[in-house]
Design a protein that fits this description.
single chain; alpha+beta; Beta Polymerase, domain 2; Methane Monooxygenase Hydroxylase, Chain G, domain 1; 2 domains; seven-stranded mixed β-sheet; 7 strands
């Protein structure tokens, strides 16, 4: 494709060039698992701060999101939730945004970003940024795709929450415990990853672009702020739902345990006097009643059974069993 160029195994370039514009076009450089060679490539072709270049190394994971306005470009570090082995982990994306270029650096653990790059390769004309060739608009599109993918994860959580509810009320509380713990951890991880997005996106609404009206940029990024708020509200609802289900499951488990302990206690109390009688009649004393009678065994057994039945009927009347 004339608009696409594979620079190396880890570096790809997509050129978004609208022939109707007199601009030089917009270049999107996508880098996966940046190492020493990729950092040298960026140093050679762009005037990026060395500290920012070091922070994009594949072995380095930033602990918090960042927006830094450097000379001639904007540097961003953002985190998005990703699934790895059924668990939610943090996927980092680093952005260098400047006039007529945008560089994304990531570890290839966010499939939505890779899918959007492939979509741009196949049909760059369908991109919103094609008409203006603005890196600010392209950044908006990328962030929009990544946030939309977050909704997919939340939808998966909702499906799992419904499954947990069915397990709880079908009596399978033990299986529900494991799923509840996994869901709680995933929801907490997503909240930790997404908690600062709203503030970062608000900062982006103040971006300036020579290619796009500032009002349009604010409109674009305001919509991302609204999406971030809706995500957070959904996470709050899911957190409350899983806490309620966890409390319900624990109550049912405690009720089952209490019922078992009550049953065991009742039978222990019933068996205790029978054990006492058996011990007494086993002493072989000289004047032990029933012992020397020809039907002594059955008489003693009858006394024990009668005693047990009386106690059982007493507990039954009290509705203890």
């Amino acid at each position: 494709m004339p608009n696409y160029k594979k620079i190396s195994d880890r570096v790809e370039e997509l050129k978004i060039d609208n022939p109707r514009n007199n601009n030089t076009g917009l270049r999107w450089i996508n880098i996966v698992n940046a190492g020493k060679q990729e950092i040298n490539y960026l140093r050679k072709n762009y005037n990026f701060d060395l500290m920012h270049l070091r922070s994009i190394a594949a072995s380095v994971l930033a602990q918090r999101p960042l927006v830094f306005k450097a000379e001639g470009y904007l540097f961003l570090i953002l985190h998005f939730p990703a699934i790895k082995d059924g668990k939610i982990v943090s996927g980092e994306v680093d952005f260098f945004v400047g006039h007529n270029f945008l560089v994304t650096v990531h570890n290839n653990n966010l499939p939505a970003l890779g899918r959007f790059f492939d979509y741009g390769k196949k049909d760059p004309n369908s991109l919103l940024s094609f008409s203006s060739e603005s890196s600010a608009v392209l950044l908006y599109e990328i962030l929009g795709r990544l946030i939309d993918d977050c909704y997919r994860l939340l939808d998966n959580n909702s499906v799992e929450i419904n499954k947990v509810e069915d397990l709880i009320f079908s009596g399978d509380q033990k299986t529900a415990v494991e799923k509840i713990l996994l869901l709680r951890r995933n929801i907490i991880n997503i909240r930790k990853i997404m908690q600062n997005h709203k503030n970062i996106l608000k900062e982006l609404t103040t971006m300036n672009s020579s290619l796009v009206d500032k009002t349009a940029i604010k409109k674009y990024y305001d919509s991302l702020v609204d999406d971030s708020k809706r995500l957070w509200e959904t996470l709050d609802n899911q957190k409350e739902m899983i806490e309620v289900l966890n409390n319900t499951n624990e109550s049912l488990l405690n009720d089952q345990m209490n019922s078992i302990m009550k049953t065991l206690t009742v039978f222990s109390v019933i068996l205790y006097p029978l054990t006492l009688l058996a011990g007494v009649f086993g002493m072989n004393a000289v004047y032990m009643p029933f012992v020397k009678h020809e039907n002594g065994f059955w008489m003693i057994l009858g006394v024990m059974v009668t005693c047990g039945l009386v106690m059982f009927m007493f507990f039954k009347k009290k509705r203890w069993i």
